[in-house]
Write a structure and sequence with these properties.
This protein is mainly alpha-helical. It has 21 helices and 4 strands. It has a two-stranded antiparallel sheet with strand order 1-2. A two-stranded antiparallel ribbon has the order 3-4. Strand 3 and strand 4 form a beta hairpin. The chain is globular and about 65 Å long.
Amino acid sequence: MKEKLLKVFKFIEEKKIPTALIFTVEFMLSIAAVYLWYVLRINKFYQFGWNLNYFIRFAVVGVLLMAVIILNLIQSRDKIEKIFLSFLIPIGMMYLVFMIPTFVPDEAAHMWKSYEISEGIIIAPIDENGNSTTKVPRFLAENTWIDIGKYSILNEVIKEETDYNDKVEVVCGVQTTSPLLYTFSSIGLLLGRMLSLNGIIAQYLARMLNYIVFLIFAYYSVKLIPFGKLFLSAYLFMPMVLQQAMSISADSVTNSICIFYIAYVMYILFKEEKVTKKEQIVFAIFSILVGVAKTVYAPLVGLTLLLISSKNMEKRNKTILIVVTIILSVIATVGWYIHTTKYTTNPEAHLEFYEAANVNPEEQVKFLIEHPLKAPLVVYESIAIDGDSYIFTMIGSLLGWLDISISNLLILEIALIIILSIFFENHKYSLSKKQRLWLLTLYFGSLSLILLALYIAWTSVGAQTVLGIQGRYFIPITILPLLCLCMKNNYVKFKNIEIYIPIALTIINLYVIDAISVYFVW
């Protein structure tokens, strides 16, 4: 029996099947398998039994899916990016289906913004007071997470027809977000409108396009980064990363861009061959996108300065690339920030909260100017008091609108796997002490910007700590200090670890998804 299996494996290795074809088939099978599992799971909850017909269908599709995954594992023994992607595809699809639409923080507002862009309105109009509203189909305005909080309601709403011509005005709180981040989700909603799909199904389609983009960026990030491949792959399995990745939220594309940018900088820095013009252009483009995606992540562009020590470019070309990239990035970031200042910092929807909590951005800025030492103290106090909660929620201890509680044991297991993965990878590259120090500087710079931005916009005037912080804000930047631990001399040999880690993370995520499904039942 063993000899026959070895012959089969050898045959598969010799008959190479295109990677794109394998992942396309796996993605389609994942959609079918997750849908069938959703039906089975819901029937089990509401009808207190398994539907035999759907169970047989699920078993057949599940076996086919497993066969494709095994096929990929046989063909990709030394390709960490391909191995992890095979596990990431179905797990992400489960988050996509089981997390009710708009239940990801601010997803309804992002969905409205995306729909607005799908109609060709790229820059939202602003009234004389700096307020901005938009018109969306009534169905999309009246069927958000507040109205659809359970699968029983969702399953009824998804059967209704959506009249895309019946519109109402809504206040969209994410108009300052770059429209570039809605490119793919807006295509999904555009297709939904053109095909007259139910509004919920259109949102699932928009989510799916965002997730495909995330998978593409994830694949190339792991493939290109010269070290930390195993760690980065494990990092992408965090529940919070997957929740944001499969949503219509702008965080999906923002995280993808920032993570890819970090990986690409490391690729350029340690590339042994000469850096091509094409690679320089890609590098410059993503340097610009990082700051435009979210101003608080602009310090990541400082990674450009690492190229000073690279030896794969002529000194003149290297200097031009660094200077031009930084200048263009600063212009783009500052330009977009100036545009966003046209919008009011006190939207009517938040006035009641602002007044009750004594939140006043203008007064807060004055307070910080009058007390220059207050800013670093606020940052320090916030990290000292709530630092551990930032880490737990960044990994995914609270999902949805921070009310789907996930066992801390599962979160600790994920954190342990991520840390251990740093030492289980054998590679020949390491950052120098100066480079690691620079990464830490950029990390704390971006961390401080995030805290101060929320201190100004969402915290009582003169408060000791920052309010409104969510761990998801730190996803793109926490990679930096962890990369500093990826040293070539820290390797601990563990056979087939590139298989065991994604299997372990998949099992943990299945428990997380189970907790999500239970939340939306009763």
